[in-house]
Structure formats: C-alpha cells, structure tokens
Amino acid sequence: MSNVVSVLKDKHGQQPVPSAWRNTFSEIVDAIKDEDFVLARGVACVRPISVEDAEGIADNIQNYGALLISLPEETWQTSVCQWQESHWVVMVDLFTEDEGASDLVLHVRVYENGPAFLFEVHLVYVP
Hints:
Blueprint: E1 15-16, H1 19-33, H2 51-64, E2 80-83, E3 88-96, E4 100-113, E5 116-125
Antiparallel strand pairs: 1-2, 2-3, 3-4, 4-5
C-alpha cells in the first residue's frame, strides 16, 4: 500500500493526486470506459458532464482507437495535480486494454466545497 498523499495548495509545483480523491477518479473512469460519457449513473461530488463535453470525450477516445480499462494502482505514480488559485487541475493517466499506460489523460478541475470537494470533468484527450 502506498503512502497517504494529502491535499496541498502548491501553485508552484505539481503534486501527486491526493489519496482522498482517487476513488472518485476511479469511478469517473469506470463510467467513461462503460460509455457513460455524461455520468448518468451519478458519481458522488462530481458534476454531470455536458452533452457537448461528453461528445468530445467520446470522439477523442474513439479517435485514439483503444479500449479504456479501470485505473490500476500504478496510475497514481504518474498522475498529477496542481493548485490554480481557485481550484486544482488534475491530470489522471489512463490505461487501455492493449497498451497498458496510454497517452490519454483525464483532465478534471477540483474545487473546495466546504469540507468536501467538487469534481468537474473537463476532457479526456492526448496532451
């Protein structure tokens, strides 16, 4: 088991994805890999994805040409976040059936919401 990664507000450098957020990202990726691009199933503390953004995500994955898989533990070795004054920008490295680690990333903004956090999926793409 890896060490617990805390939530930090460091605008000068990237940090590992906090441990407390990882399950949420896993649920988002599971929905997307099941082609639930608008998160119709609902994921706690995650804003639904607009139809326009969902279409962009679906197109980017289809154009990439590989099937996403659930996030393995190793994704947290390379995925990062960075504080941007009002929110964190998080880049989660995605894995596919054929390649394992892929060039695709899940780009999410995370906002403070009282003592909790609110997740807003921006895109899945190749940076």
